[in-house]
Amino acid sequence: MAMRLRNLILVLGDQLDGNSAAFDGFDRKHDAVAMHEVRQEATYIRQHKVRLVLFFAAMRHFRDELIANGINVHYRAISDPENTHTFPLEIADKVRRLDPHKLIVVRPGDYRVRQSIVETCRNLGVELEIREDRHFFCSPDEFAALSEGKHLILENFYRRMRAKHGMLMERGKPAGNRWNFDKENRRPMNAASKKMLAQPLSFPPDAVTREVIDTVDQIFKDSPGSTQSFDYPVRRADALRALDDFIAHRLPNFGAFQDAMTVGEPYMYHSRLSSSLNLHMLHPREAIDEAVQAYERGHATLNSVEGFVRQVLGWREFVRGIYWLHMPGYQDMNALQAESAVPAFYWTGDTDMNCLRQAARGLVDHAYAHHIQRLMVFGLFSLLLGVVPRKFHEWHMSMFVDSIDWVSLPNALGMSQYGDGGIMGTKPYCASGNYINKMSDYCRGCRYKPTSCPVTVLYYNFLERHQERFQTNPRMLFQINNLRRLDQNTLLRFRREADTIREGLA
Ligand SMILES: Cc1cc2nc3c(=O)[nH]c(=O)nc-3n(C[C@H](O)[C@H](O)[C@H](O)COP(=O)(O)OP(=O)(O)OC[C@H]3O[C@@H](n4cnc5c(N)ncnc54)[C@H](O)[C@@H]3O)c2cc1C
Ligand code: SF4
């Protein structure tokens, strides 16, 4: 009679780390790994082809690394005729065939997936152990304790994380005696800084990835985007090279131009590390340590390095904490009672508004837009238009290479759409076309003028619609007072134009 398996380790597509808690105590003789490419996960929302290729290619490379290490891997490929295409059925199949004593999984990055695994194991009567995810600095329990009885804001959380983990700290104080260098980090691009730009290292597909590309092009031919220029890291070794490349060539200017946008440059000085981090090919500690060492050896300035550490140790951990603290209710929050759908051009970039067209170009080609494009172009326009926050998040999940529920939801629904009514941030990120004109060269190539374009029209209309709510928020007073300076005729014109824009996009 075949011996029963001791533990079956379930490795999800965003858990590609051989040192994760799932492998603690792993015994090659008695344990095995299960990995699944299932259609349900690839279609529960439409997905950009680049995102699909990234996941499947990275999973297959990780599988090969495990096998090379003598680990028994039960891998179900998307094109396998026996694939049942759902996690519950695939798990049931493994449990039936391998009869493990226990299933082990690291906490999934998606509440829906965690519930589904818990339920499946309960129905099958098989023991399930969910292990905490060591990829992160702050566990959901620690975050809940820090939030107890107060509204935890990013700045306080971030300072605690810096102090606790000794990152950029000098004799108990923040390096440079300041926690925050945001003021130095708001430079727009000019011709000279544009010339200095270095493109991120490109990782042309190898044979394994090319096979995935063919499969995705065949099975998911109606999905958005194209696989043609796929060049993301799909192996840990390449993710480490991508990190070195960022530290060497873009980190020194990361801070100064963090909020800038410019025509034809999807990456600017950004790291393009989010997909490697989110699939756990790279540990955030590795990224932070390299950045801090670059500061210590004088290669990068403090404002750049602090800006990067703030993103990774601050924002990234903070949004995850918010996600687990507030799920499942969080996903349906809609504080401003928005009602609109995501505009059709968000999928294609087919619009005469240059800011949105430019941001969508990188998105359609690479499934990527940098933070300010996400927040102050796509996010801003949706907020002003009144897109249902969950719909905006679902669009984001579809189109971005790095989107996972725990990180997309608080950023998209919370930070950018104010759907959570102020949990993520104390005010909505709303601005007129003048902001985009200040931080980019988009308006120069646009058929509209920033003082009267759709962004500006919708901005004043947004303030007018929500002035009662925001007039008591001290951080919104400046904007509300500006609105109140407008004469009635101008307000009426903006109202009519806003209605026309909405009708045109419906
Ligand atoms: C509407 C909206 C949706 C977003 N959805 C996602 C998402 O699904 N996945 C995702 O990884 N990031 C998301 N972000 C955060 C951020 O925009 C991306 O992490 C970043 O643009 C990825 O590109 P990069 O690696 O070049 O980042 P860089 O600008 O180089 O930043 C370095 C790293 O910091 C981390 N980081 C920075 N800001 C954030 C943040 N707000 N939340 C979490 N991590 C952060 C990322 O890991 C990133 O790789 C979203 C932001 C907005 C405004
Ligand atoms: S003028 Fe308005 S619509 Fe055109 S690029 Fe500038 S902000 Fe965007």
Shape: globular
Named CATH topology of the largest domain: DNA Cyclobutane Dipyrimidine Photolyase, subunit A, domain 3
Order of strands across the biggest sheet? 3-2-1-4-5
CATH architecture of the largest domain: Orthogonal Bundle
Which series of helices and strands comes N to C?
Answer: EEHHEHEHEHHEEHHHHHHHHHHHHHHH
Total helix count? 21
Portion in helices = 40-55%
> CATH superfamily assignment of the largest domain?
DNA Cyclobutane Dipyrimidine Photolyase, subunit A, domain 3
* Bound ligand species: flavin-adenine dinucleotide, iron/sulfur cluster
Structural class computed from helices and strand pairing: mainly alpha
Largest sheet properties: 5 strands, parallel
Strand content: 5-15%
End-to-end C-alpha gap: 64 Å
Tell me about this structure:
This protein has 506 residues and is mostly helical. The protein folds into 3 domains: 7-131, 3-Layer(aba) Sandwich (Rossmann fold); 140-200 and 250-327, Serine Threonine Protein Phosphatase 5, Tetratricopeptide repeat, CATH 1.25.40; 344-505, DNA Cyclobutane Dipyrimidine Photolyase, subunit A, domain 3 (Orthogonal Bundle). The chain is 50% helix and 5% strand. It has 21 helices and 7 strands. The strands form 2 sheets. A 5-stranded parallel β-sheet has the order 3-2-1-4-5, with helices on both faces. Strands 6-7 form a two-stranded antiparallel ribbon. α13 packs across α17 and α15 packs across α19. The mean pLDDT is 96. Flavin-adenine dinucleotide binds at residues 270-274, 277-278, 308, 311-312, 315-316, 319, 370-371, 374-375, 379, 396, 400, 402-403, 407-408, 411-412, 415-416.
